[in-house]
Recover the amino acids of this structure.
């Protein structure tokens, strides 16, 4: 266990931007593109910077029909889609289901330590599924073909778990070479996927609530309201914000960090010479669930009151819509997909025409669920993937709309 850092300077010896270097958008994203141009959704929030945005138009823009649905347990992670398979985590199981037919390929149940392991949302690359286990067990690396365990990384003793989805750090033409994992005792682990050992670890103050990475700089948000920038095991900077970090994102270009807080609004924090300082602060911004959609100069966050789209440059509200949107949204092409208590609603990313919440031509379609949308919305393979929590007498179901 590393010693706790007592002091982090506001600006480290290296800024996040200078350490990051220049990476193209596709290299940062880490999304797999197949031969016909469709794009997978390989990890919880699509890419390493948690943009929640698939740049390909791979979701329905007109009211969809149901491809299939299958009964699942209570979901705790947004579905991931890779190589023709959708992976869904629940309190007790990790399911791998054929994207086209809805047939289950395999299911991994309780671990050797608990009957309800609480799997995180998975991250998938090159035939391997990486998933955290919140109730002991650390990180599991599973064979994507059959779910068998390839290896396990212990983050501490048997009581130490992982409840934040793992993300890759280094992404290149050859696939992922490293993975970032946060254990529930407040330690960030940077793993070498070849050696299956930690390159470095760093202990923050309190529980890590969110992780993003850009150009080998790891950003961690905590329940105590702090945002850290870490590089090669050292702290570049740390910033205290007024509330738990509920969502975190990093820009593809420029390296600024976007953070939503519980009760304190949304912040855009600078990179470069003024790293960690506020570029803008929107006090009435959303208490965003887990992740934003960051695309086309816009930042969308959803909460139990509405969906709000901010201007990425200024933080000003561009448009918003009322609704109980209790899960992270998703974007694809020019469409924004929102999940809430009334099912899934699709809007134009630009909101249509009008001012603030008075809009025309923005709504594309609405698909009602029996219950609410659980865990989040995923867009891939020409379809929307989401869990319908069901009604009083109806079970939770993974639903695919196309």
């Amino acid at each position: 266990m590393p010693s706790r850092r007592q002091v982090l300077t506001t600006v480290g010896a290296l800024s996040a931007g200078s350490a990051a270097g220049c990476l193209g958008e596709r290299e940062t994203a880490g999304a797999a593109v197949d031969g016909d141009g469709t794009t997978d959704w390989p990890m919880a929030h699509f890419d390493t910077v948690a943009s929640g945005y698939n740049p390909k138009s791979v979701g329905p823009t007109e009211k969809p029909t149901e491809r299939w649905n299958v009964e699942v347990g209570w979901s705790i992670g947004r579905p991931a889609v890779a190589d023709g398979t959708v992976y869904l985590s629940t309190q007790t199981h990790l399911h791998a289901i054929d994207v086209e037919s809805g047939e289950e390929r395999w299911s991994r149940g309780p671990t050797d330590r608990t009957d309800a392991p609480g799997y995180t949302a998975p991250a998938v690359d090159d035939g391997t599924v990486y998933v955290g286990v919140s109730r002991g067990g650390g990180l599991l690396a599973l064979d994507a073909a059959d779910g068998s365990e390839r290896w396990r990384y212990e983050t501490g003793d048997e009581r130490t778990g992982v409840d934040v989805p793992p993300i890759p750090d280094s992404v290149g033409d050859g696939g992922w070479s490293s993975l970032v994992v946060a254990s529930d005792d407040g330690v960030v682990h940077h793993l070498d996927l070849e050696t299956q050992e930690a390159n470095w670890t760093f202990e923050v103050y309190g529980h890590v609530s969110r992780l993003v990475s850009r150009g080998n700089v790891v950003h961690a948000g905590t329940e105590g309201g702090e945002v850290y920038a870490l590089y090669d095991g050292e702290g570049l900077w740390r910033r205290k914000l007024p509330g738990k970090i509920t969502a975190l994102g990093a820009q593809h270009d420029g390296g600024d960090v976007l953070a939503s807080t519980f009760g304190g609004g949304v912040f855009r924090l600078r990179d470069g010479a003024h790293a960690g300082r506020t570029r803008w602060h929107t006090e009435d911004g959303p208490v965003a669930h887990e992740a934003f959609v960051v695309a086309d100069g816009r930042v969308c966050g959803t909460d139990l009151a509405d969906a709000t789209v901010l201007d990425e440059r200024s933080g000003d509200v561009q448009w918003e819509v009322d609704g109980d949107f209790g899960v992270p949204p998703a974007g694809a092409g020019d469409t924004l997909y929102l999940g809430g208590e009334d099912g899934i609603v699709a809007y134009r990313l630009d909101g249509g025409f009008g001012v603030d919440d008075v809009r025309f031509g923005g709504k594309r379609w609405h698909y009602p669920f029996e219950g609410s949308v659980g865990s989040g919305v995923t867009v891939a393979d020409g379809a929307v993937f989401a869990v319908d929590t069901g009604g009083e007498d109806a079970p939770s179901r993974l639903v695919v709309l196309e």
